[in-house]
Amino acid sequence: MGKKKPQGESRNRLLWVSLVLISWMILIIWRLSWLQVVKHEYYAKKAAGLQQDSEMVMGPRGSILDRNNREMAYSVIYDSLYADQNLIKKEEARTKRAIRQTAAQNIASLLGVSEEQLMQDLTGDSGFVWIRRRIDPGMAPAIKKIISEKNLSGLGIKQESQRFYPNDNIGSHVIGYVGSEDKGQAGLELTQDEFLKGRPGEVHFSRGARKTRYNSWEIPALPGNQIRTSIDIGLQYKVEVLLDEVMKRYNAKGAHAIVMDPSSGEILVMANAPTFNPNVRLKTGGEDNRNNKSISTPFDPGSIFKIVTYAAAIEEGLARPDEMINCGNGQISFGPRIIHDTHAYGTISVADAFAKSSNVGAIKLAMRVGKEKFHDYITRFGFGSRMITELPGESKGIVRPLSSWNYDSIGSVAMGQEISVTLLQAVSSVAIIANKGVWVQPHLITQKTSSDGRVLFEARPASRQVVSPETARIMTSMLERVVTTGTGRHAIQLKGYTAAGKTGTPQKVDPITKAYSKSKYMPSFAGFVPATNPKFAIIVMVDEPIGAYYGASVAAPVFNMIAEAALGDFVVPPDEKSFREDLVRLANKYESEIAKEDGAQEKLIAETATKPAPISSPTPQKKTERIETGSDVKVSANLPPSAIPRKQAPPQKTKGAVIVGSGSPDSIAGTIEMPDLRGRGMRAATQFCSELGLKPRLIGSGIVVRQYPAPGTRLRPGEECRLEFQ
Amino acid sequence: MATAKSKNLLTTIEGLKWDLWLAVTIIGLLIFGIVMVYSAGAATKSPGRILANQAVWAVLGLAAMLVLRKVDYHLFARPGFVYGFLGICIALLFIVFLGPSLNGAKRWIVIMGYSAQPSELTKIALVIFLAWFLSERAEEGVLGDFWASVAPAIVVLGVLAALILKEPDLGTTLILGLVFVTMLFVAGVPMRHLFGLSPFLLIGAVIMIVKYAWRVERFKVFWDPERDPQGKGYQILQSLIGIGSGGVNGLGFGQSRQKLGFLITPQSDFIFAVIAEEIGLIGSVTLIFGFGFFLWRGYLAGKRAPDMLGELIAVGLTTGIVAQAFFNISVAINLLPAKGITLPFVSAGGSSLFVTLAAAGILLNISSQGIARTGD
Which residue has the higher pLDDT, B191 or A254? Predict the structure, then answer.
């Protein structure tokens, strides 16, 4: 070694170099501390903005179901592809072009459009544009992946909710409809909006520069609650068809009907013609069509209001049905005003005066009650106040306070003038009579359940005694007389059932002169069936028919057909005594004939076989059995077992479907052959299924493109079939 | 010197004591580096390949370190070796221009899939040349003669720097300049020569920087990275976001978010951003102190070295490694404008790690000889 090392100065020089480097180190640590301590918050926020993101997820709006859980309204969440052109424009020219080209090349084929088309959509100048609404659910994830992998800023997928009304027009006034963003705007959709709407959730996630996600956490979206209504969509459909028919037949402005269960207050049908399709509501008629007139537009009830007048007099003990009353030959005068009957009656019984709808009789009874008490009864029947809480836009009707009654008002009100009621109030007054004098609040919603099946609400309608059961019984028999011998005798012809009801032929109030019109009427019929054990309170009203105007001739036949359909659909046992006797007689006759035939056959078998053939024991019969013949539905139920024919007629063809009686020894006993519904419309298919006793599950809208099970498959009544529409 | 010269070139010194502090610091930095390379590269397309590459170079580098620790550094101090070494480096720096271009720069020689930067090797070549040349001139007593000592050294530096600048690799050039000035200064070259040199170097630097527009741009972005957050300021801004959001304690090992595609090649030049983000101020200051400790042990080895040759080699190599580390960190925290140089021992990058470990081997040899001499 022996090499001389630089001394002194060199040592100092090495120290100087060390000091320089240590200063540099201190500078670094100072700067690092400043970044990581003082500016930490600033950069952490910047990092979060860069690395964290969130996305909204929608919860579907809840369904509205009918009483048999058939969907009347439901929502589907769709993914939609959009482009934010402002965001694309912000990019550098090169990236901008690259984004458009990559998007066009990769996504066009998935959407089934040409690349040029997609390029055009992306090149526009309008900011936010939808490129494709409602992407095929299978395609959305693939598109999402492309967007994130190719870093296509400005393109994105957003969830949208779409409301479907699978039955189109049917029940549309009750269901209502939604506007933009699934917000309820009418009917149950409006009043139950808060309840039905889904709660949106959020997905928060961290992401890398290439939008790869990790560490995600979610506030899950909550589907809306579900509402079950008392509506029977099948019966509603039938009523709507009838109303449409009658409206067209008489060139009427409209036709309206309500069917309710008097004992539970459940509204089974609330129908107005003309109607609208909530799926395409803007294309189907004006705003007037969307108005639920059976609750929103009061009318002067006319003669059906005499039910209240008579019930008041009987309840007060001021009249008996067999009591004779002088109808003054069809005339009564209040000072200068003379009121006429259509027909002049002399002295007749109270029941006859009611059955023949004598105005004079009604006025005389009202005067016996006196205007204070009469007004009281009107209020107790529910006139002048709201009936239902679940629908928007309900009118209270117009019941003038006693203080503003004229000297002749009691006469007018007694026959249903100078008073306005809604159709719902009118049917409710009939229901009170049907339900032994007890008013049960009419309602539509029977149950509300959360998306996970918890029951949140069960209908417990309010009720109150309005008239005594005895008064109700007397009124029922008087209403029956209207149907058997009175104004309704020609129109009401129910085989096997008793009926009770009242006609009304009110004149319309001319909106200009405020006087009763001489040519515009609103014929109506209100009543209930069966009279002995009322299941349905029904009202029908036709607005301004042309050509005929009596309640008996215009409204009563519709009432009759609605009653027939309702009794059939709900398999109500017949209550008419003579009809039951006839049935029993007929059954006994078949019984003996079949017994004779069987005997002959057994003898024959015994001769040909070595062993005696087993004697077929009577197959256990269900108490209720439906036999369908053509489109006409007839019911035999609650009959003694002997009354039911043991052997059935050969299977009958019913519109391509075969119904086989349960008495058949065949293995396909009691099954239905699935018809080919492909190519049929929504309404026809639904109708078909309900006639066959199948529960249709409807997917999409339009015409049937796929069905499960396939045509020809055998199903049991009550089974579900899946129909896909397009 | 005479005894050393008489020895066979391959003779190694037996029975040398380890400089344990220095060895532990080197191994610590190396292991830390491999772990952080694994973490930072985990989110890239081929994390396995990056880790394997780093491990292979670490093993090769360690082998070189162990060999060189046993080779007496005086063996390098002969004209044949020094000029041969310089000649090989210059040749390799020419070959670089035949090699592949990456991001507009030609810095690599690719052999069997492995790429190496000759500029890394040049650092050692320059240190050995200067140490030999200056200690010879000192022995002759002509260190004070500008034309005898400073001028020839400048010519050698000029040739090397010009070739590396041409790649272009401004960062390595600056490190070479820094090492050059430090060694001349420590060797005892009169201050007037060095001051005479400084305006010359300053003008050169300004010309270099201004000559290329992108370097001016780099300066603009350096002053305010957020003026072009998606373009030239992108990488530095991402680095600052990572470091700043790491805070005092860091997000936890492996938890860096900026490495998920925000930082470009996070395992290489900007690995410090990932380190500061994951282990926070505490971890990153510990790393800086690690280099500080290395600086002390390196300079201590030089101080204890038996002769001027050993001292100058130790000071040159230590200065090269530590200055490069501080340079790299300064870029990551935006103290200096962005330059592509690695963090020694830590960054992924094969030839850099290999050369650094080889230099550490020479340093360990000098240190061991110093311990043998002083009996410390």
Answer: A254
